[in-house]
């Protein structure tokens, strides 16, 4: 029993111990749960969102804190209490919230709604969902968050977002409408955005196409490529500006590229077409170079100073005028130093107060009035005209003109004017100068004395018609006075020179003329030609007498030629009879004498025929025109003189081209022309020399050329080679009257052709004939 009692007691103690252990454990758990519950209640109380529990029968369990948010004095127990008078929700908001709760109870979803309690400036965000486990399935929990501050921030951010969006849209529209290409590169420097001008410049389909294909505005790669500027701008974090060529619209253009780094790592860029600007700069440089080259060619010295009063340019005349060395000018000396150097070179006027004089010239840089002009009188009688002009950029332009020669010329001009006036007044010729309005301006003593004008009349500067009216009674034909008016008006208005003659009533004759002067006036001159008129009449009488004598001489020569033929024919006939043996057989020496007589008779007959031809003249010469074969005529003429050429051992050559052809003319005269030219060439050529006959032609003319390599003629002989009855010439010691060339000229001109001669002493002579077809 004791053992049993001990066992029971042990079991009781063990059970009590276990119960105590579980109790202590439960107490510890309860304490932990209480702590967690207290922590949860603390967190929930300090949480930004507070819950409202809505039962399935729409009863509400709401903390007092939330009731205060809704503007309620006491927490409501149902939905009707949410819209109580003096606070709570607007009835419509309460109805919508009830509808949201019912939707959650049916579907188990959630909702979010913002409400504004009546009479409160706060905004509440309501988030509804099914209640957690431990509640009924139809219970709904609504978490209430006071979003007033957040709403204000949202509204502020929304307003800022709207402003940013508007600004972005405006900027995007501006970039899109910009006439210059613009683009944006991402951090990888690839194109991310381009505007329409960029698309048009690269001839792309649209912006998306250009960005997708990565079409660059500038060709190339490396240091001169399109990415070099963007990379440099991103590295230096400063804008990069470059000028590179680009092909736009098929034309090569100079583009100024701007790459601007952005905070996000990207690079924005735009391009400005500066082709016209570059061309303008090039033109400006060329113009400046041309202007300076032109200034170097001026006789006046030119010096240009910048706004800092240093010399930036001077031409060569300036350096010579003021003895300036080039190496000294390269340092761009200041204005005062230049004046001092001029003074050292004795190229400035002698002044007592040089510093004050220099200060006055320094004021040229600040004057705003017109250009300053003054004259410097330098030692040695040198006169320099100085013109100072202030430039728009604040600089100064000085022009130095050496007027020494001009002053000397002005002095000489005054002297010449006095001499001219004295000469004008004492000329034998009568002179008068009429202005453009027809008034007499100047006259000399001869003009006044010739027409017996009164000084009072001339001093009134009468018009030309008044002068003509005054001189009319002194003319043999008074109405000829109007010619003076016409001549003066023609010289002043039409600027034409006219002249004429007039006879005075006293028998004198005058030659007059009206000459236009450079200043628009007219010079009227009258010269007494009475003596020359009488001499002219005497010469006319003499010329008429000489012409009559020439006709008598021509008739005498012609008659003598005909008379000479009669005894010449008898001599020829008797000589031929003696040669034929009618008077008996002749000795050998007598035969030679008879042959010589016949030869002389033949030559004399030819000479008489030539003289007769010359006396006829080209107009009186009868021509028997027919078709002439020039080749046949040329060969006949060559055959006629072949023996003479052979006797003198002449190398006689004949060239007849196929273009010689035919022409209409006198066969005999053309053959005689060739013979005369050939005989003249054979006589002129030395023994063993060379003579050439060449015949060719064109569609309009036939050409005959005869040349020899004889002694030739001097200039005087060549000039008179075709003169009739010229002085006899001497060829190789034989004196002869050469009528061949004058006859050839007469025959050629009778056919309407032309003949010319070219000769050079020691080289020979060439005669060319052209005959119309």
UniProtKB/TrEMBL annotation:
Pfam families in UniProt: HATPase_c (PF02518), HisKA (PF00512), PAS_7 (PF12860)
InterPro entries per UniProt: HATPase_C_sf, HATPase_dom, His_kinase_dom, HisK_dim/P_dom, HisK_dim/P_sf, PAS-like_dom_sf, Sensor_HK_Regulatory, Sig_transdc_His_kin-like_C
Entry keyword set: Kinase, Phosphoprotein, Transferase, Two-component regulatory system
SUPFAM superfamilies registered for this protein in UniProt: ATPase domain of HSP90 chaperone/DNA topoisomerase II/histidine kinase, Homodimeric domain of signal transducing histidine kinase, PYP-like sensor domain (PAS domain)
Catalysed transformations (reactions): ATP + protein L-histidine = ADP + protein N-phospho-L-histidine
Record Gene3D superfamilies: 1.10.287.130, Histidine kinase-like ATPase, C-terminal domain, PAS domain
Signal sequence extent: none
Residues in Histidine kinase domain copies: 559-773
UniProt-recorded Gene Ontology molecular function terms: phosphorelay sensor kinase activity
EC number: 2.7.13.3
Domain of life, per lineage: Bacteria
Entries under PANTHER family matching the protein: HISTIDINE KINASE 1, TWO-COMPONENT HISTIDINE KINASE
Protein name, as recorded: histidine kinase
């Amino acid at each position: 029993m004791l053992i049993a009692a001990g066992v029971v007691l042990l079991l009781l103690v063990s059970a009590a111990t276990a119960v105590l252990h579980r109790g202590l454990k439960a107490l510890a758990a309860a304490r932990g749960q209480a702590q967690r519950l207290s922590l949860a209640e603390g967190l929930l109380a300090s949480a930004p969102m507070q819950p409202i529990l809505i039962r399935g029968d729409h009863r509400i369990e709401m903390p007092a804190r939330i009731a205060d948010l809704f503007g309620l004095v006491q927490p409501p127990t149902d939905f009707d209490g949410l819209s109580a008078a003096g606070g709570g929700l607007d009835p419509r908001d309460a109805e919508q919230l009830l509808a949201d709760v019912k939707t959650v109870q049916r579907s188990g979803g959630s909702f979010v709604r913002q409400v504004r309690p009546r009479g409160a400036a706060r905004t509440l965000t309501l988030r509804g969902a099914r209640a957690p486990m431990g509640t009924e399935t139809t219970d709904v929990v609504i978490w209430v968050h006071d979003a007033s501050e957040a709403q204000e921030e949202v509204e502020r951010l929304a307003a800022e977002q709207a402003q940013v969006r508007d600004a972005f849209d405006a900027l995007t529209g501006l970039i899109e409408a910009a006439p210059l290409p613009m683009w944006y590169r991402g951090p990888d420097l690839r194109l991310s955005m381009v505007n329409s001008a960029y698309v048009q410049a690269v001839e792309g389909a649209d912006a998306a196409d250009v960005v997708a294909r990565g079409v660059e505005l500038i060709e190339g790669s490396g240091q001169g490529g399109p990415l070099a500027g963007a990379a440099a701008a991103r590295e230096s974090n400063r804008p990069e500006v470059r000028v590179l060529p680009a092909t736009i619209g098929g034309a090569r253009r100079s583009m100024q590229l701007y790459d601007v780094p952005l905070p996000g790592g990207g690079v924005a860029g735009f391009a400005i077409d500066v082709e016209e600007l570059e061309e303008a700069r090039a033109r400006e440089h060329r113009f400046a170079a041309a202007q300076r080259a032109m200034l170097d060619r001026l006789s006046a010295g030119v010096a240009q100073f910048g706004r800092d009063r240093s010399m930036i340019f001077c031409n060569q005349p300036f350096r010579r005028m003021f003895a300036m060395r080039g190496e000294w000018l390269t340092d761009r000396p200041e204005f005062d130093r230049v004046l001092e150097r001029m003074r050292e070179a004795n190229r400035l006027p002698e002044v007592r107060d040089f510093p004050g004089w220099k200060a006055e010239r320094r004021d040229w840089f600040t004057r705003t009035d017109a250009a300053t002009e003054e004259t410097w009188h330098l030692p040695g009688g040198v006169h320099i005209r100085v013109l100072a002009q202030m430039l728009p950029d604040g600089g100064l332009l000085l022009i130095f003109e050496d007027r020494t020669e001009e002053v000397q010329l002005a002095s000489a001009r005054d002297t010449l004017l006095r001499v001219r006036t004295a000469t004008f007044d004492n000329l034998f010729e009568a002179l008068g100068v009429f202005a453009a309005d027809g008034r007499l301006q100047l006259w000399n003593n001869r003009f006044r004395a010739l027409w017996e004008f009164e000084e009072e009349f001339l001093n009134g500067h009468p018009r030309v018609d008044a002068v003509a009216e005054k001189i009319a009674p002194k003319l043999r034909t008074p109405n000829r006075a109007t010619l003076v008016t016409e001549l003066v008006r023609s010289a002043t208005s039409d600027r034409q020179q006219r002249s004429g003659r007039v006879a005075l009533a006293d028998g004198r004759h005058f030659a007059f003329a009206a000459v236009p002067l450079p200043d628009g006036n007219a010079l009227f001159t009258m010269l007494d030609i009475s003596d020359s008129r009488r001499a002219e009449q005497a010469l006319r009488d003499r010329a008429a007498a000489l012409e009559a004598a020439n006709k008598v001489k021509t008739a005498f020569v012609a008659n003598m030629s005909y008379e000479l033929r009669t005894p010449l024919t008898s001599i020829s006939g008797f000589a031929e009879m003696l040669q034929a043996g009618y008077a008996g057989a002749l000795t050998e020496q007598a035969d030679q004498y008879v042959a010589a007589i016949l030869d002389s008779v033949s030559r004399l007959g030819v000479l008489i025929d030539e003289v007769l031809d010359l006396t006829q003249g080209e107009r009186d010469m009868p021509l028997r025109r027919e078709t002439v074969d020039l080749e046949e005529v040329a060969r006949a003429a060559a055959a006629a003189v072949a023996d003479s050429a052979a006797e003198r051992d002449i190398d006689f050559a004949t060239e007849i081209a196929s273009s010689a052809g035919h022409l209409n003319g006198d066969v005999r005269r053309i053959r005689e022309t060739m013979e005369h030219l050939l005989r003249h060439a054979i006589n002129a050529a030395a023994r063993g020399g060379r003579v050439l006959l060449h015949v060719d032609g064109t569609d309009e003319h036939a050409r005959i050329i005869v040349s020899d390599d004889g002694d030739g003629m001097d200039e005087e002989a060549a000039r008179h080679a075709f003169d009739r009855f010229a002085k006899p010439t001497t060829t190789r010691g034989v004196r002869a009257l050469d009528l061949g060339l004058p006859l050839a000229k007469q025959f050629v001109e009778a056919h309407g052709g032309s003949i010319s001669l070219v000769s050079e002493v020691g080289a020979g002579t060439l005669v060319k004939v052209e005959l119309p077809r």
